[in-house]
């Protein structure tokens, strides 16, 4: 059983406070949109898919007990509150995509005279609740697609019929603590393990929030997977001496040309992987792919407070008065990405837009 970042039942939402992990496991109530915005902005819950799910469910628990006098007033509440939630963190696109889809649903229900305001609320609640199961199903598909792609790549590169077990490297946290469960890049690791094809997974600490040391290591130890924590500064040495078969990371926003915004440090890992001839994969559900922007140059990169760099908890580790630069993400150009692993298959970056457009019938 993997760790559960989100606990939901109709009218009640709790999130595992990830600022306290791994030492303290404490669930926090999220009673409405204000709570939702705060736990996302403070990174008590984080991870592109989890942000969208918690954001939308925070609105669901807020409107659940309310009575609305008209569908118009309900639609206005939905649109205003979802757009507010999008402002909690700017880089991951999932919250924006989910908000747009739910606002479109609200507009359609408002126009349908056969739907009462009560039925509209129920349809909205069900649409937000469906995100939980869909995310887990998407992640399991990503895991299977990604494991297959990595094993096929290794088999072809080494001239063997069937590859594995393999060693892989991942960055940040893309597991059950970043999603509704199973994970994206960590879902690929889980699937490799389920296939008996995971020799070892290496996870980077991922300064300054330490998603790797505090969260990914926690998930891997919890499930007894063969894992080793490495410092962010060790990636080049690791790829030179440890026979890493592939790197697999998550994504916060993939642009139409395949450029990918992900946790700071991803770009330099991709450069090092290129230098060592190690395939570099991005695992991302369609809810993290933004075909509205042509390239990574258009992705807003969140800059977070200096204190996240100068302190570990309450302990200062940097000289008082030093300037800091703390972008939470960087952009990896499509040219450094071997494949983008989605729930619908693995795509070359240059083919992504056409493949997704065809898939969605756009
Ligand atoms: C499953 S996507 C997780 C994605 O989100 C992380 O960022 P943050 O911890 O700041 O929300 C990181 O970029 C991961 O790849």
From TrEMBL:
InterPro entries: IF-2B-related, IF-M1Pi, IF_2B-like_C, Initiation_fac_2B_a/b/d, M1Pi_N, NagB/RpiA_transferase-like
EC number(s) reported in the record: 5.3.1.23
Gene Ontology molecular function: S-methyl-5-thioribose-1-phosphate isomerase activity
Recorded catalytic activity of this chain's protein: 5-(methylsulfanyl)-alpha-D-ribose 1-phosphate = 5-(methylsulfanyl)-D-ribulose 1-phosphate
Sorted UniProt keywords: Amino-acid biosynthesis, Cytoplasm, Isomerase, Methionine biosynthesis, Nucleus
Keyword Isomerase found: yes
Top enzyme category: isomerase
Pathway given in the UniProt record: Amino-acid biosynthesis; L-methionine biosynthesis via salvage pathway; L-methionine from S-methyl-5-thio-alpha-D-ribose 1-phosphate: step 1/6
Active site: 252
Gene Ontology cellular-component annotations: cytoplasm; nucleus
Site (Transition state stabilizer) residue list: 172
GO-annotated biological processes: L-methionine salvage from methylthioadenosine
Location(s), subcellular: Cytoplasm; Nucleus
A family per Pfam: IF-2B
Signal peptide: none
Function: Catalyzes the interconversion of methylthioribose-1-phosphate (MTR-1-P) into methylthioribulose-1-phosphate (MTRu-1-P).
Family: Belongs to the eIF-2B alpha/beta/delta subunits family. MtnA subfamily.
Stated name of the protein: Methylthioribose-1-phosphate isomerase
């Amino acid at each position: 059983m993997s760790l559960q970042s989100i606990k939901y039942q109709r009218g009640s939402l709790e999130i595992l406070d990830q600022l306290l992990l791994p030492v303290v496991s404490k669930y926090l109530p999220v009673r409405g949109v204000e709570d939702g915005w705060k736990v996302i902005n403070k990174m008590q819950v984080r991870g592109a898919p989890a942000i969208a799910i918690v954001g939308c469910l925070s609105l669901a628990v807020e409107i659940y007990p309310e009575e609305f006098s008209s569908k118009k007033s309900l639609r206005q509440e939905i649109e205003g509150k979802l757009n507010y939630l999008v402002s909690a963190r700017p880089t991951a696109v999932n919250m924006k995509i989910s908000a747009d889809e739910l606002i479109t649903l609200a507009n359609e229900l408002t126009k349908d005279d056969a739907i009462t305001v009560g039925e509209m609320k129920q349809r909205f609640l069900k649409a937000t609740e469906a995100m939980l199961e869909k995310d887990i199903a998407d992640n399991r598909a990503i895991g299977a697609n990604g494991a297959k792609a990595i094993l096929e790549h290794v088999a072809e590169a080494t001239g063997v019929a069937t590859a594995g077990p393999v060693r892989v490297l991942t960055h940040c946290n893309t597991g059950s603590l970043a999603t509704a469960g199973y994970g994206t890049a960590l879902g690929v690791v889980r699937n490799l393990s389920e296939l008996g094809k995971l020799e070892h997974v290496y996870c980077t600490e991922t300064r300054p929030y330490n998603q790797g040391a505090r969260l990914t290591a926690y998930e891997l130890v919890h499930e007894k997977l063969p894992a080793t924590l490495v410092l962010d500064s060790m990636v080049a040495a690791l790829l030179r001496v440890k026979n890493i078969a592939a790197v697999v990371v998550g994504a916060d926003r993939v642009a139409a040309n395949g450029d990918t915004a992900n946790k700071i440090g991803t770009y330099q890992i991709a450069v090092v992987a290129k230098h060592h001839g190690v395939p570099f994969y991005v695992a991302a559900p369609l809810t993290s792919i933004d075909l509205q922007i042509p390239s990574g140059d258009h992705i807003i990169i969140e800059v977070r407070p200096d204190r996240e760099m100068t302190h570990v908890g309450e302990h200062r580790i940097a000289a008082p008065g030093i300037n800091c630069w703390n972008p939470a993400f960087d952009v990896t150009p499509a040219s450094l990405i071997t494949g983008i692993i989605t729930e619908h298959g693995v795509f070359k970056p240059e083919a992504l837009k056409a493949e997704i457009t065809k898939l969605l019938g756009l």
